[in-house]
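4.2 Preliminary Data

To establish feasibility before requesting continued support, the project team ran the inverse folding procedure on a target of 180 residues. The structure was first converted into the token representation described in Section 3, and no sequence information of any kind was made available to the design step. The complete token record follows.
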């Protein structure tokens, strides 16, 4: 909301009390001379207003995640001069998995190395979030996000955070009002 306008050059495009958005032209790049003609100028003004920064965060009651089962298979592939000598017999039979791989030299005299690939079996699980337990964390994230969007050199006027639950979702909405 525009609270104060001091035009230096240009023509105002807003008035005190107007709601504006980022990118709205506040001052137009012309003046009108005594003959009623537009004269191009570099627009300059001092404009102050109340700035509203809004942050919204949400959390689903149910979330799908992947978890390691504890089952794993390790496969070794031996190489000399970077060429495969032979591979281990184990094969990955997991439907869902993640893999870690690294290479290690096993001889200081010969360029013999092996790739070690470990496959970890994963299972899909459903995580149920407890809204009462996680309410404060969601609100904190919303507040932190709102503060990260604040413009510099502003004066704090108000901060408000509300959390609501709609069905299987919880929402946190923070509105910060500053004068800038």
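Position-by-position output of the design step:
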């Amino acid at each position: 909301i525009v609270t104060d306008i001091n035009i230096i050059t240009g023509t105002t495009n807003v008035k005190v009390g107007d709601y504006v958005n980022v990118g709205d032209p506040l001052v137009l790049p012309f003046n009108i001379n005594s003959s009623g003609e537009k004269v191009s100028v570099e627009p300059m003004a001092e404009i102050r207003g109340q700035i509203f920064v809004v942050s919204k965060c949400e959390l689903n009651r149910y979330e799908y995640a992947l978890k390691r089962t504890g089952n794993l298979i390790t496969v070794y592939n031996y190489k000399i001069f970077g060429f495969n000598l032979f591979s281990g017999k184990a094969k990955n039979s997991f439907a869902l998995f993640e893999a870690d791989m690294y290479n290690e030299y096993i001889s200081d005299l010969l360029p013999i190395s092996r790739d070690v690939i470990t496959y970890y079996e994963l299972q899909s699980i459903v995580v149920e979030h407890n809204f009462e337990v996680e309410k404060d964390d969601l609100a904190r994230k919303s507040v932190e996000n709102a503060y990260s969007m604040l413009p510099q050199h502003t004066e704090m006027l108000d901060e408000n955070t509300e959390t609501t639950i709609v069905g299987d979702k919880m929402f946190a909405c923070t509105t910060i009002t500053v004068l800038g």
